[in-house]
Amino acid sequence: RARLIDTGASRGGGAARRPFGLNLTISSPDRIFIRGRGLDAELGGELLISGTTANVVPSGAFNLIRGRLDILGKRLVLSEALLQLQGDFVPYVRVVASNESDGIISSVVIQGQVNEPEVSFSSVPELPQEEVLSRLLFGRGLTSISALQAAQLASAVATLAGRGGQGIVGNLREGFGLDDLDIVTDAEGDASLRAGKYLSENVYTEIEVGQQGQSQINLNLDVTRNVTVRGSAGGDGGTSLGVFIEKDY
Questions:
Q1: What whole-number distance in Å separates Cα of residue 36 and Cα of residue 116?
Q2: Are 181 and 166 in contact (CB under 8 A)?
């Protein structure tokens, strides 16, 4: 049974209700996804909701677990991914993917408010951004690429700027209800299909099937926040099992 007790504070319509204080922590060690513009990343972290019901103040950060960036069929593994709330509900995002060619480390950086991030390119040693993008995609300098590849550079910039769709693989992932779906190619050009799905809050399974019929299933069990058991079994009978301890300092 519940009833409203009228204390008289609201009579006359001039008094405002007193806001309630907030102190709520939301923990999500995984399954925070950033997808789009060729980006597919999974993050985990914590969010603190403070302030009052009249002025909600969110703060917290989610960091990279795994991720990749695909541009024109070129696969770049993420070295950094951060999604951070700094007082409002429009998060700040920073994503970095890099590779090395001819002793030059080239990086693409996506950062800014999530509704309007900026894309930039950098390198060590420092080179012009067009030169960096050329090395990221084609492994060689701007003066060494063809006219077709130069046109592809413009297409890559358009994709990163948000003028491209999620593609066929992204549509299939959503259609089958998977958490991850990817087509990977090894150094010999052989392709394989990889599909991943969370079976529960702390169990993630991944199946990989190669074009020659070979298959492998991987299983990740998060025992605690810092301890993960990883096992795999291949179609050829090979198995592996490992315990991994991860700690941030």
A1: 13
A2: no
User: Mind giving me the DSSP string for the chain?
Assistant: -------STTGGG-PPPPPPEEEEEEEEEEEEEEEETTEEEEEEEEEEEEEETTEEEEEEEEEEEEEEEEETTEEEEEEEEEEEEESSSS-EEEEEEEEEETTEEEEEEEEEETTS-EEEEEEES---HHHHHHHHHHSS-GGGS-HHHHHHHHHHHHIIIIIS--HHHHHHHHHHT-SEEEEEE-TTS-EEEEEEEEEETTEEEEEEEETTS-EEEEEEEESSSSEEEEEEEETTS-EEEEEEE----
Sequence spans of domains, the chain: 21-163, 167-245
Catalogue the long-range contacts made by 222-228 (C-beta closer than 8 Å, 24 or more residues apart): 222/29, 222/30, 225/29
Asked whether the beta carbons of 15 and 7 are under 8 A apart, the reply is: no
Place of tokens 């990343």: 41
pLDDT in tens, 150-173: 777 766 666 665 555 555 456 556
Residue of 160, 185, 164, 162 lying closest to 75 (CA atoms): 185
Sign of the Cα pseudo-torsion (151, 153, 67, 64, in order): negative
What is the tens place of the pLDDT at every residue in 66-102? Answer: 998 887 667 888 999 999 988 877 888 899 998 887 8
> Using CA of residue 5, residue 10, residue 15, residue 17, what is the dihedral sign?
positive
Closest listed residue to residue 83, CA positions, set 98, 70, 67: 67
pTM above 0.70, yes or no: no
Residue at token pair 């080179």: 127
